[in-house]
Design a protein that fits this description.
It is a single chain. By secondary structure, the chain is α+β, with helices and mostly antiparallel strands. It folds into two domains: about 1-60; about 75-189, Ribosomal protein S6/Translation elongation factor EF1B (Alpha-Beta Plaits), CATH 3.30.70. About 50% of the residues lie in helices and about 25% in strands. It contains four helices and six strands. The protein has helices at about 1-60, 65-75, 80-95, 140-150, and strands at about 100-105, 110, 120, 125-140, 155-165, 175-189. The strands form two sheets. It has a four-stranded antiparallel beta sheet with strand order 1-4-6-5. A hairpin with a 5-residue loop joins strand 2 and strand 3. The radius of gyration is 35 Å and the shape is rod-shaped.
Length: about 190
């Protein structure tokens, strides 16, 4: 009889040890194994990304600096108002057309929503725009040549508004017009 009591007590102690020590320890070891496998997967992914980065960097370095400058000029990643105005001035100077009254503005902080109402906050666009207004004067032929050069320039610009003023007075203004031009150009956010 005593043997059965000792067997029952030993069985009870073994069950208690299993449920209060062995099972929680085993479960924590399994959790650590799962976490370790997640870390291994993350390391494998990081290694894969490093290889992809090296390949892309090698491809990037294979482009000539001239081509990279052209792409940067086409759609820059920042707004450089001064350089843009200087480019416009240099382009207009070819036709003896002075750039005057330059006004650079960015769009308002509100973005029109789908229903036409303005919403405050960040938009989902990956680009933004800058509006440039300026005045110039010159002959119609010179102005058309200036606009053709602007159209063929690498920088992406949209003509938003154009106003013509009649002939300017005075002997130097013979055959000349005044032009108020509004352009929009874009840049990556």
């Amino acid at each position: 009889m005593m043997r059965y009591i000792f067997a029952l007590i030993a069985l009870f102690i073994a069950g208690a040890i299993f449920f209060w020590y062995t099972k929680p320890t085993y479960d924590s070891v399994q959790a650590i194994k799962d976490e370790s496998s997640q870390y291994d997967a993350a390391l494998a992914k990081a290694t894969e990304l490093q290889q992809l980065k090296a390949q892309l960097l090698q491809r990037y370095n294979s482009f000539s600096p001239t081509d990279l400058d052209r792409v940067q000029k086409l759609l820059p990643d920042h707004v450089d108002n001064v350089a843009l105005i200087l480019d416009l001035d240099n382009l207009a100077a070819r036709y003896q057309m002075p750039i005057e009254n330059v006004d650079v503005s960015t769009p308002a902080s509100t973005v029109a929503g789908d229903n036409g109402t303005a919403t405050i906050g960040a938009s989902g666009q990956k680009y933004d725009s800058v509006t440039i207004r300026f005045s110039t004067r010159g002959t119609y032929t010179d102005f058309m040549s200036f606009m053709k050069d602007l159209e063929q320039a690498l920088r992406v610009v949209d003509l938003v508004q154009l106003s013509l003023k009649p002939n300017l007075t005075g002997p130097a203004g013979q055959g000349q017009y005044g032009y108020d031009v509004t352009l929009r150009t874009y840049w990556l956010k």
